Amino acid sequence: RTGCIEIPVVVHVVHNRPEQNISQAQIESQIRVLNEDFRKRNADIGSVPVPFGPVAADARITFRLAASDPSGAPTDGVTRTQTEVAAFSDDDAVKSAVSGGADAWPSNEYLNIWVCQLGGGLLGYAQFPGGPSATDGVVILHSAFGTTGTAAAPFNRGRTTTHEVGHWLNLRHIWGDDGDGCSGSDFVDDTPNQGGPNFGTPSFPTISCSNGPNGDMFMNYMDYVDDAAMMMFSAGQVTRMQAALDGPRSTIGR
Ligand code: ARG
Ligand code: ZN
Ligand code: CA
Protein backbone atom coordinates (compact mmCIF):
# COMPACT_ATOMS: atom_id res chain seq x y z
CA ARG A 1 0.00 0.00 0.00
CA THR A 2 1.19 3.50 -0.82
CA GLY A 3 -0.15 6.81 0.45
CA CYS A 4 -0.73 8.12 3.96
CA ILE A 5 -2.96 7.14 6.84
CA GLU A 6 -4.40 9.87 9.06
CA ILE A 7 -4.82 8.86 12.69
CA PRO A 8 -7.46 10.54 14.87
CA VAL A 9 -5.96 11.48 18.22
CA VAL A 10 -7.51 12.16 21.61
CA VAL A 11 -5.32 13.88 24.20
CA HIS A 12 -6.38 13.21 27.80
CA VAL A 13 -4.90 15.94 29.99
CA VAL A 14 -4.88 14.63 33.58
CA HIS A 15 -3.79 17.38 35.95
CA ASN A 16 -3.04 17.76 39.64
CA ARG A 17 -1.12 21.03 39.94
CA PRO A 18 -2.57 23.83 37.73
CA GLU A 19 0.41 24.03 35.35
CA GLN A 20 -0.20 20.39 34.40
CA ASN A 21 -3.45 21.49 32.77
CA ILE A 22 -1.46 22.28 29.64
CA SER A 23 -2.60 24.76 27.02
CA GLN A 24 -4.22 24.04 23.70
CA ALA A 25 -1.12 25.61 22.11
CA GLN A 26 1.12 23.03 23.81
CA ILE A 27 -1.13 20.22 22.53
CA GLU A 28 -1.14 21.63 19.01
CA SER A 29 2.65 21.96 19.08
CA GLN A 30 2.89 18.21 19.73
CA ILE A 31 0.52 17.31 16.88
CA ARG A 32 2.65 19.50 14.61
CA VAL A 33 5.82 17.63 15.64
CA LEU A 34 4.17 14.24 14.99
CA ASN A 35 3.12 15.40 11.54
CA GLU A 36 6.65 16.58 10.77
CA ASP A 37 8.51 13.58 12.17
CA PHE A 38 6.26 10.88 10.63
CA ARG A 39 6.34 12.59 7.20
CA LYS A 40 10.11 13.25 7.24
CA ARG A 41 9.30 16.95 7.19
CA ASN A 42 11.19 17.73 10.40
CA ALA A 43 13.42 20.80 10.07
CA ASP A 44 16.46 18.89 11.41
CA ILE A 45 16.34 16.00 8.91
CA GLY A 46 19.46 17.52 7.31
CA SER A 47 21.41 16.67 10.50
CA VAL A 48 21.26 12.94 9.76
CA PRO A 49 24.87 11.84 9.13
CA VAL A 50 25.49 11.42 5.38
CA PRO A 51 25.96 7.60 5.45
CA PHE A 52 22.53 7.14 7.06
CA GLY A 53 20.77 9.63 4.76
CA PRO A 54 19.60 7.06 2.20
CA VAL A 55 17.91 4.99 4.93
CA ALA A 56 15.92 7.87 6.49
CA ALA A 57 12.29 7.41 5.49
CA ASP A 58 8.86 9.01 5.34
CA ALA A 59 6.52 6.92 7.54
CA ARG A 60 3.45 8.12 5.58
CA ILE A 61 1.42 8.67 8.76
CA THR A 62 -0.35 11.87 9.77
CA PHE A 63 -2.23 12.83 12.92
CA ARG A 64 -5.14 15.12 13.70
CA LEU A 65 -7.06 15.88 16.87
CA ALA A 66 -10.36 13.99 16.74
CA ALA A 67 -13.34 16.02 15.52
CA SER A 68 -16.01 13.68 16.89
CA ASP A 69 -16.13 11.86 20.21
CA PRO A 70 -17.13 8.20 20.71
CA SER A 71 -20.82 9.16 20.75
CA GLY A 72 -20.46 11.15 17.52
CA ALA A 73 -20.64 14.57 19.16
CA PRO A 74 -18.27 17.35 18.05
CA THR A 75 -15.06 17.61 20.10
CA ASP A 76 -11.76 19.43 20.05
CA GLY A 77 -10.02 16.08 20.63
CA VAL A 78 -8.98 16.97 24.18
CA THR A 79 -10.34 15.77 27.53
CA ARG A 80 -9.38 17.48 30.78
CA THR A 81 -9.51 15.70 34.14
CA GLN A 82 -8.59 17.04 37.57
CA THR A 83 -6.89 14.35 39.70
CA GLU A 84 -5.82 13.88 43.31
CA VAL A 85 -2.88 11.79 42.12
CA ALA A 86 0.35 13.82 42.46
CA ALA A 87 2.34 11.63 40.07
CA PHE A 88 1.50 8.56 38.00
CA SER A 89 3.76 5.61 37.15
CA ASP A 90 3.75 3.05 34.35
CA ASP A 91 0.97 1.06 36.08
CA ASP A 92 -1.80 2.41 33.77
CA ALA A 93 -3.69 4.17 36.61
CA VAL A 94 -3.84 7.32 34.46
CA LYS A 95 -5.90 5.36 31.92
CA SER A 96 -8.99 4.92 34.05
CA ALA A 97 -11.29 7.25 35.94
CA VAL A 98 -11.58 4.94 38.96
CA SER A 99 -7.85 5.27 39.62
CA GLY A 100 -7.70 9.05 39.17
CA GLY A 101 -7.18 9.14 35.42
CA ALA A 102 -9.34 9.31 32.30
CA ASP A 103 -10.89 6.35 30.47
CA ALA A 104 -9.63 5.47 27.00
CA TRP A 105 -11.68 6.23 23.91
CA PRO A 106 -12.18 3.15 21.68
CA SER A 107 -8.70 2.18 20.55
CA ASN A 108 -9.91 0.78 17.24
CA GLU A 109 -10.76 4.37 16.25
CA TYR A 110 -8.47 6.69 18.19
CA LEU A 111 -4.87 7.00 19.30
CA ASN A 112 -5.21 7.77 23.02
CA ILE A 113 -2.51 10.05 24.43
CA TRP A 114 -2.54 10.68 28.18
CA VAL A 115 -0.52 13.69 29.38
CA CYS A 116 0.18 13.91 33.11
CA GLN A 117 2.80 14.15 35.83
CA LEU A 118 4.94 10.99 35.94
CA GLY A 119 7.28 10.00 38.76
CA GLY A 120 10.66 8.32 38.76
CA GLY A 121 12.17 10.24 35.84
CA LEU A 122 9.85 8.49 33.39
CA LEU A 123 9.30 10.51 30.22
CA GLY A 124 6.62 8.28 28.78
CA TYR A 125 5.52 4.73 28.00
CA ALA A 126 3.49 2.95 25.36
CA GLN A 127 1.43 -0.16 24.74
CA PHE A 128 2.40 -2.32 21.74
CA PRO A 129 -0.26 -3.53 19.27
CA GLY A 130 -2.32 -6.50 20.41
CA GLY A 131 -2.82 -5.50 24.05
CA PRO A 132 -6.03 -4.76 25.97
CA SER A 133 -8.02 -1.93 24.41
CA ALA A 134 -8.79 -0.23 27.75
CA THR A 135 -5.08 0.57 28.20
CA ASP A 136 -4.12 1.08 24.56
CA GLY A 137 -2.19 4.24 23.69
CA VAL A 138 0.73 6.25 25.01
CA VAL A 139 1.39 8.19 28.21
CA ILE A 140 3.63 11.26 28.16
CA LEU A 141 5.07 13.43 30.92
CA HIS A 142 3.56 16.91 30.50
CA SER A 143 7.00 18.55 30.52
CA ALA A 144 8.17 16.25 27.69
CA PHE A 145 5.07 16.99 25.58
CA GLY A 146 5.09 19.45 22.70
CA THR A 147 7.48 22.36 22.27
CA THR A 148 5.93 25.15 24.34
CA GLY A 149 4.21 25.71 27.70
CA THR A 150 5.61 23.33 30.34
CA ALA A 151 7.88 21.51 27.86
CA ALA A 152 11.40 21.59 29.30
CA ALA A 153 14.83 21.02 27.76
CA PRO A 154 16.31 18.63 26.75
CA PHE A 155 12.94 16.97 26.05
CA ASN A 156 11.09 19.97 24.62
CA ARG A 157 11.01 19.07 20.95
CA GLY A 158 8.13 16.62 21.15
CA ARG A 159 10.24 13.56 20.45
CA THR A 160 9.11 11.57 23.48
CA THR A 161 5.71 11.29 21.82
CA THR A 162 7.31 10.43 18.46
CA HIS A 163 9.25 7.64 20.25
CA GLU A 164 6.23 6.29 22.15
CA VAL A 165 4.00 6.36 19.06
CA GLY A 166 6.78 4.37 17.37
CA HIS A 167 6.29 1.70 20.05
CA TRP A 168 2.51 1.92 19.64
CA LEU A 169 3.13 1.06 15.96
CA ASN A 170 5.26 -1.94 17.00
CA LEU A 171 8.79 -0.49 16.89
CA ARG A 172 11.32 -1.83 19.38
CA HIS A 173 14.25 0.06 20.83
CA ILE A 174 17.04 0.30 18.31
CA TRP A 175 19.57 -1.46 20.58
CA GLY A 176 17.37 -4.58 20.89
CA ASP A 177 16.59 -4.32 24.63
CA ASP A 178 19.38 -6.68 25.67
CA GLY A 179 21.15 -4.33 28.06
CA ASP A 180 24.52 -3.49 26.48
CA GLY A 181 24.79 -6.82 24.65
CA CYS A 182 25.17 -7.45 20.94
CA SER A 183 22.61 -10.23 20.57
CA GLY A 184 19.33 -8.31 20.96
CA SER A 185 17.44 -7.25 17.84
CA ASP A 186 14.88 -4.62 16.92
CA PHE A 187 13.75 -6.93 14.07
CA VAL A 188 14.60 -4.25 11.50
CA ASP A 189 17.29 -4.95 8.88
CA ASP A 190 18.53 -1.47 8.07
CA THR A 191 19.31 -0.34 11.63
CA PRO A 192 22.85 -1.39 12.64
CA ASN A 193 23.27 -3.90 15.45
CA GLN A 194 23.88 -1.74 18.53
CA GLY A 195 25.05 -2.42 22.09
CA GLY A 196 22.98 -0.40 24.54
CA PRO A 197 21.05 2.86 24.49
CA ASN A 198 22.74 6.19 23.77
CA PHE A 199 22.00 9.29 25.85
CA GLY A 200 22.51 13.04 25.55
CA THR A 201 23.97 14.28 22.27
CA PRO A 202 26.42 11.65 20.93
CA SER A 203 28.86 12.46 18.17
CA PHE A 204 29.10 10.56 14.89
CA PRO A 205 30.34 7.89 14.63
CA THR A 206 29.55 6.10 17.90
CA ILE A 207 30.69 2.51 17.46
CA SER A 208 29.52 -0.62 19.30
CA CYS A 209 29.15 -4.33 18.44
CA SER A 210 31.76 -3.98 15.64
CA ASN A 211 29.29 -1.84 13.68
CA GLY A 212 31.92 0.51 12.21
CA PRO A 213 32.61 2.59 10.26
CA ASN A 214 29.21 4.26 10.68
CA GLY A 215 28.36 2.84 14.10
CA ASP A 216 25.10 3.21 15.98
CA MET A 217 22.12 4.93 14.36
CA PHE A 218 21.82 6.93 17.60
CA MET A 219 19.94 9.73 15.78
CA ASN A 220 16.99 7.34 15.37
CA TYR A 221 13.77 8.19 17.24
CA MET A 222 13.92 4.75 18.89
CA ASP A 223 17.20 5.42 20.76
CA TYR A 224 17.32 7.30 24.10
CA VAL A 225 19.21 10.46 23.06
CA ASP A 226 18.02 14.01 23.76
CA ASP A 227 15.19 15.37 21.59
CA ALA A 228 17.59 17.56 19.61
CA ALA A 229 19.78 14.55 18.76
CA MET A 230 17.07 12.29 17.27
CA MET A 231 15.62 12.99 13.83
CA MET A 232 14.84 9.89 11.74
CA PHE A 233 12.99 6.61 11.24
CA SER A 234 14.58 4.06 8.89
CA ALA A 235 12.88 2.50 5.85
CA GLY A 236 12.79 -0.85 7.66
CA GLN A 237 11.07 0.75 10.63
CA VAL A 238 8.49 2.29 8.27
CA THR A 239 7.80 -1.17 6.83
CA ARG A 240 7.20 -2.46 10.37
CA MET A 241 4.88 0.45 11.29
CA GLN A 242 2.92 0.07 8.06
CA ALA A 243 2.59 -3.67 8.74
CA ALA A 244 1.06 -2.80 12.12
CA LEU A 245 -1.36 -0.43 10.35
CA ASP A 246 -2.29 -3.18 7.88
CA GLY A 247 -2.55 -5.80 10.65
CA PRO A 248 -3.39 -5.29 14.33
CA ARG A 249 -4.15 -1.58 13.82
CA SER A 250 -6.02 -1.90 10.53
CA THR A 251 -9.21 -0.33 11.90
CA ILE A 252 -7.64 3.04 12.68
CA GLY A 253 -7.71 6.01 10.31
CA ARG A 254 -9.96 4.20 7.82
N1 ARG B 1 10.29 5.64 27.40
C1 ARG B 1 11.46 6.50 27.36
C2 ARG B 1 11.74 6.98 28.77
O1 ARG B 1 10.82 7.32 29.49
C3 ARG B 1 11.27 7.67 26.42
C4 ARG B 1 12.51 8.16 25.84
C5 ARG B 1 12.24 9.37 24.96
N2 ARG B 1 13.45 10.04 24.57
C6 ARG B 1 13.51 11.31 24.22
N3 ARG B 1 14.63 11.85 23.84
N4 ARG B 1 12.50 12.10 24.26
O2 ARG B 1 12.88 7.05 29.17
ZN1 ZN C 1 10.97 3.34 24.46
CA1 CA D 1 21.98 -4.63 21.77
Question: Your description of this structure?
Answer:
Helix content is 14%, strand content 13%. The chain is an alpha/beta fold. Strand 1, helix 1 and strand 2 form a beta-alpha-beta unit. The chain is globular. The mean pLDDT is 98. Zinc ion binds next to helix 2.
Please summarize what this structure is:
With 254 residues, the chain is of the alpha/beta class.
Layout of strands and helices, then pairs:
Layout: E1 5-15, H1 24-37, E2 61-65, E3 78-82, E4 111-116, E5 124-126, E6 138-141, H2 159-168, H3 235-246
Parallel strand pairs: 1-2, 1-3, 1-4, 4-6
Antiparallel strand pairs: 5-6
Bound molecules: arginine, zinc ion and calcium ion.
Residues 163, 167, 173 line the site of zinc ion (ZN).
